[in-house]
Amino acid sequence: MTATHPARPFAAGRLPRIPFPVVDEVDRHCAQEAEPSTVHIEVRLPGRLEEDRLRAAFAESLARHPRALMRERPRSAFARRYEWELTDGPDRDPVSFPPVAPGALDRVRAASLAAAPPLTVSPPLRVTVVEEPDREGCALVLTVHHTALDGPACLRLAATAAEIYSGRTTPPPTAPARPAPAPVSPRSRPAALARPARVAAGTPGAVPGNAQLLVELPVPRRESGAPYTVNDQLMVATALTVAEWNRRQGAAERPLRITMPVDDRSRGPEMPIGNGTRLVEVGFDAAEVASGTDIPALLRLTAERTRALKAQPRPQLGRSVSLLTTPLLPVAARAAYTRGLRVLAGPWTSTTLLSNIGRIPYPLDFGDAGKATAVWFSAPARMPRGLTFTTASTGGRLHLALRWSRTLLGDEDGEALLGLFTRHLAATSSETV
């Protein structure tokens, strides 16, 4: 099953239901109150938004994308599936305008990481418009429960709301281009299936949960006709950052495996709403990311690997995970089994995650409030990975969210990792390599 699994038909007067797709079910099984599975999206606008007009725009956007109007259906103790119940409209208005106050944006950002929208209320997302007295414009902060929706799907909802708010329809963007399938050379294969490196622990604080840093960086330059993409440059920077961090912490050198979401969905109004990305893992041998790495060679090697992985058809979470969601046992039993396997498989989980949204495919034009000048995403950083890198580009600038688990790293560790990433990303630029 995928995020586009059709709704089950029911008699008149009964709401349609959708069994949880594989991604939704696995995420629901592994829910942790201490580290909620939220996606944080922040859109910066140069002007101010009108409250009633924005509420109406998001209400209409949800009506045009009814798959987002869902809540988890109550189930019996012996039910064999989680099910989404599609509602006729929102159970509550997801849009809020907190009072204008100093520090409001920091508080909303913290809440986005600390508390997920409830799955039992439709839709499972929050839209918060933040204004501060000493800051021009406003920030549109969207908090999504990742069990229900991913970042690109929620951005599609925001793009539709922007079109409705401004009254300007934009041409639908094209789906991302993917390379044709090709034979996989030995060099393109990931590192051997040995136990991958973990992100070495820093100096975590006493409070659990996630923390993040949001920064704006220049997009690394590439020579015309370069065999690698910006995504490959980000992948190399991520690998070198983690490898250097682990060396500084005295961790043994091990292969790295970096999870990379691949999204093949169209971006137009017909975009399937839900969790629609598939996950692949890019491997690096320890010697490939050692001190003094030949960066041009590593960029070419990484490009070979990512092209091969993107071209290969693959279920969203791999073939073996589908077996965990086969409804032979009650969902409560499968949940306990899945959580146990997750603990046992922790040492073999990928080292970290790099989610590159790429160039934002929508203008996000809110009329009098202006077009988006920056868009940040941040993906959950639950243990055992404990660290994620999420990037998007707007207006020729790269917007990076570095997010980490407080049980693994502290605020000073996050600053140090950001410094390493910035330096390694600059080293991949055509002005440097």
Notes on the structure:
- This protein is an alpha+beta fold and about 425 residues long.
- It folds into 2 domains: about 15-165, Chloramphenicol acetyltransferase-like domain (Chloramphenicol Acetyltransferase), CATH 3.30.559.10; about 185-355 and about 385-425, Chloramphenicol Acetyltransferase (2-Layer Sandwich).
- The protein has 9 helices and 14 strands.
- The strands form 3 sheets. Strands 8-14-13-11-9-10 form a 6-stranded mixed β-sheet, with helices on both faces. The protein has a 5-stranded mixed β-sheet with strand order 5-6-7-2-12, with helices on both faces. A 3-stranded antiparallel β-sheet has the order 1-4-3, with no helix packed on it.
- Strand 6 (about 125-130) and strand 7 (about 140-145) form a beta hairpin.
- The model is unreliable at about 1-5 and about 10 (pLDDT under 50).
